Amino acid sequence: MTQKFYTKDHEWLSIEENIVTIGVTDFAQEQLGDVVFIELPEVGADLIEGDEAAVIESVKAAGEIAVPINGTVVAINEDLVDQPELLNTAPEDEGWIFRVSPSDGLETASFMDAEQYQKYIDSGE
Questions:
Q1: What angle is formed at CA 69 by the lines to CA 64 and CA 73, rounded to 5 degrees?
Q2: 3-class state of residue 91 by DSSP
Q3: Residues 37/80, Cβ–Cβ less than 8 Å
Q4: Residue 17: which CATH number?
Q5: Is residue 33 situated within a structural domain?
Q6: For tag attachment on the chain, is the N or C end more exposed, with fewer CB atoms within 10 Å?
Q7: How far lies 75's CA from each of 19, 62, 82, 97, 124, in Å?
Q8: Where is the Lipoyl-binding domain (predicted)?
Q9: Could you report the per-residue pLDDT of 60-112, keeping only the tens digit for each?
Q10: Over the range 19-51, which residues count as b (16 or more CB within 10 Å of their CB) and which as e?
């Protein structure tokens, strides 16, 4: 069973077995505008929570994607190299950015579910 969570940095995490897929939320891509480039992490990179894992450049701004958990990058979405617009058209589906194998036990208490995330967006924090 897949579980989906959200962060205050407007990233989503989809957890299936022991692999975490990470991307940006629909709200985040709306704020960025048209994405023109993405720099992906290296497969095999060991990341510590808070590390910059990817950089997204849009016509409006550049934004960093910080990894929300400790782990090793096991896959990247290479389709984004040639089609960065997938982050705009399907940010929570084909526009996933990278997958991580957690190095610690995966603690989800600090993440929000969809309802909590919507309230967070609506509050304007």
A1: 75
A2: coil
A3: no
A4: 2.40.50.100
A5: yes
A6: N
A7: 10, 23, 16, 9, 33
A8: 19-101
A9: 889 899 999 999 999 999 999 999 999 999 999 999 999 999 998 788 889 99
A10: ebbbbbbbbbbeebeebeebebbeeebebeeee
User: Per the domain annotation, does 48 fall within a domain?
Assistant: yes
Whether 125 has a pLDDT exceeding 80, the answer reads no
Contact 62, 30 (CB under 8 A): no
25 domain-assigned:
yes
125 lies in a domain? Answer: no
Rounded to 10 degrees, what is the CA torsion of 3, 92, 5, 32? 170
Residue 97 in contact with residue 24, Cβ under 8 Å?
yes
Residue 98, both tokens? 């990278």
CA distance 116 to 89: 23
CB-CB contact of 33 with 98 (8 Å): no
pLDDT-derived band at 52, boundaries 50, 70, 90: very high
Q: How many domains does the chain have?
A: 1
